[in-house]
Amino acid sequence: MLTRRTLLGGAVVGGLAARAGGRTPSAVRAVRYVRYEIGGRISYGLLEGEIVRELRGDPFTGARPTGASHKLAAVRLLVPCTPSKVLAVGLNYRSHLGSRPAPKNPEIFLKAPSCLLEHNGQIVIPQGTSDVHYEGELVVVIGKKAKQIPVGEAPGYVLGVTCGNDVSARDWQKADLQWWRAKSSDTFGPLGPAIATGLDYGKLRLQTRLNGQVRQSESTADLLFDVPTVVSFVSQAVTLLPGDVVYTGTPGQTTAMKPGDVVEVEIEGIGVLRNTVAQA
Question: Which CATH class is domain 81-279?
Fold first, then answer.
């Protein structure tokens, strides 16, 4: 049985090494921020094992513990930030290229913020598409305003990383001039469960499971364009604001999901993003 600890990766915050899926990254000391709702009130908190420690404010402008805490099982985890922009990188793993040539620069596209979906939320396949795929991805969360920053300074503008699923309707991708519905339909942007700081973003194991079977498994070390390069590249044209997110691309090959499926994206040190699938 999948316990709540299993779904969130079992990472522990506050001086202990974060774990995910039984793997302990070397020298990892992660802090994990969550955004949650309890009793009709939305707050940020620090996730420490099975406890959420409430924060006053947010991790972008400065957050302080209130002294209150909640059991993880008692709160509803929300999308971990509220971005003004959701960007994504296409073709950023060689294993995903197929016969296509490697891009010379990060290939950026936009997803509508309204497509974002929380951990344990339901991906809804819209009417009119019959080929909707998962795409497990590392997602960068911007920590402060970034405009035309050099690659070497880019890490200083990143608050942390989280898990994402760039849900994609392949038939609409092929048929439409723009990807507005193929990538941005409601619920097509699962994100969470937590924002992890203090990790080496370039050496994390990413794994996607469909109904418990591993479908994608690769290290972020295999990104064609790493996190600093992507953040710097985007900032040359688009000003990134605190809370904005960038999906960094998916590895390997993907397959269609169907109603009743369960898809999980796990990244070591962050946890597991779990969503069910339904038909509209």
Answer: alpha beta
Cα 265 vs. chain centroid, distance in angstroms? 8
Cα–Cα distance between 228 and 241 in angstroms, integer?
Answer: 16
Of 45, 255, 235, 276, the closest CA to residue 133 belongs to 255
Report which residue type is found at 224. Answer: L
Supply the pTM of this predicted model: 0.91
Q: What does each of the 280 residues of the chain score in pLDDT, given as a tens digit?
A: 334 433 454 433 332 233 333 343 433 468 999 999 999 999 999 999 999 999 999 999 999 999 999 999 999 999 999 999 999 999 999 999 888 899 999 999 999 999 999 999 999 999 999 999 999 999 999 999 999 999 999 999 999 999 999 999 999 999 999 999 999 999 999 999 999 999 999 999 999 999 999 999 999 999 999 999 999 999 999 999 999 999 999 999 999 999 999 999 999 999 999 999 999 9
